[in-house]
Amino acid sequence: MARQIRLPRPGVWLDRFLNRKLPADRRISLRVAWPLYLFPWLLILQLIDPSPLWMALMVALLGFYAAGLAWVRAQARGLSLIRRRLGSMIVVGDAVSEEFTLENRSSLPLLWAAFEDESYLPDYSPGQVASCGAEAAVRWKSEAICRRRGVFRLGPHSLHSGDPFGLFRLHIRSDQQESLLVYPRVVHLPPLDLPRGQTSGRDRRRRPLQGDLRSPTVRVYQPGDSLRRIHWPTTAHRGQLMVAELEEEPSGDLWIVLDLNSAAQSGTGEQSTLETSVILAASLAADLLGSNERRSVGLLTVGRLPEDDDAAPEDETILLSPQPGRGHLWRILAALAPIQAGRLSAADLLQRNRPLLGKGHTIVVITSQIGDDAPDWLAQLLHLRRSGVDSSVLAVTPAVAPALNEGNGAQQILAAQQDRLSDLLVRQEIPVRFLQAGTPMRAALTYRRRRTELRTTPTGGVIAREVEEEVG
Q1: Do 226 and 158 sit in the same domain of this protein?
Q2: Are residues 278 and 366 both part of a single domain?
Q3: How far apart are CA 158 and CA 171, in angstroms?
Q4: Which of 212, 258, 457, 463 is spaced 20 to 30 A from 281 at the CA atom?
């Protein structure tokens, strides 16, 4: 049986001809093809009735296509685009900035080039249409404010151009990609109470979270204070009972247990309990690791890590053992950046990780679960306390709109839940602090940058002025 030979289609032949000896990332395509269909008719007319007119039209037709193809092939070898990200670490609220350099090394001018970007970063559109002369380069910058934490992608990108007649299209694609990690915000926290317990021999003395205090200091007597701590000279001087407050030592390593159970989350964006909880975890780690106390801090949470090829990712455990130092802080921030709400409750999270929380450790639970299910994780805290693990709670309450407060009593329901939980924790001597989602707090990680501001004059001119500002 004779072997059948298949010839390539005309489109394949044309593609091979147009892109002969070009790199794989640069392709030339025919944009306007209908004038070529006139060439056979002009040739037939020339054979039937020879005339300089038919010959001139055929020469002009082939000449235009030959010139256009030569133009784009010269630019295909001479065009290049370089992109460079400015800056290194980005925190929510910072600006991501990129610099683009379009180089034309050919001897022909670049009349136009359209830059198309495929980056995955919200509100970032660095697309540009540029032109430059022969053997020249053009630069531009693109900037966007990062409103969301997470892991994003810069690139890939492509460049489109063509010949002056619009007959051919040049497509240059670059698969250059860069991962952009946007860290969560770090803010100044309100005064917090940490449990006080036994210390290990390697622990350093540290200040309470209420602020810098010298040892010893005195304060007003409160019910429950030991009478042995009354400072009688100061009491006699001020005319009221004053007690001495010495510097406290930490109760060993500290674990930040972040509850990301989706059933307990509410709100969207920056007003959500999820974002506020992540900010609190990042800020608490920064406060403890950024001081001179040499406190070891760890992170324990379970959530979902978004993936491009998986529509429903599984829950993953984020476990960072307690370590001291600022370097460990960035590991915690990097772990918190992409995490999203999961399905595991706070009670199950504490129960499954009991072996990690040994005697002498301290845990701070950050949770939005303050309703009827709160006693479940409270029971786990009591079980841990019997094992020698002290705890403290940061409870995040939802941001209730004023209209809801008046309409269905949502604020009253929330206040009742808060009072009930506070009463349960106080009875068990577990410090608790409530914080409403979306509460404005001053940024702790800030830096100063300079930007150019354009202002118009009364005469119609423009003045460029350098402005220095603090961002974070």
Answers
A1: no
A2: yes
A3: 7
A4: 212
Range of the domain at 387: 253-436
Q: Is residue 67 part of a domain?
A: yes
Q: Is 283 left (phi over 0), alpha (psi -120 to 50) or beta?
A: alpha
Mean pLDDT by 10 residues, the chain (472 residues): 54 88 94 91 91 93 95 94 89 91 95 94 92 94 92 94 95 93 91 59 39 57 75 86 65 86 91 94 91 83 76 82 90 95 94 85 93 89 89 90 54 87 90 91 65 57 54 48
Q: Are residues 149 and 64 in the same domain?
A: yes
Per the structure block, which two tokens stand in for 132? 């430059």
- Total-model pTM: 0.76
Q: What are the start-end ranges of the H helices in 337-390?
A: 346-352, 374-386
- Helix axes of 326-336 and 273-289: crossing angle, nearest 10 degrees: 170
Classify residue 310 by its DSSP letter: B
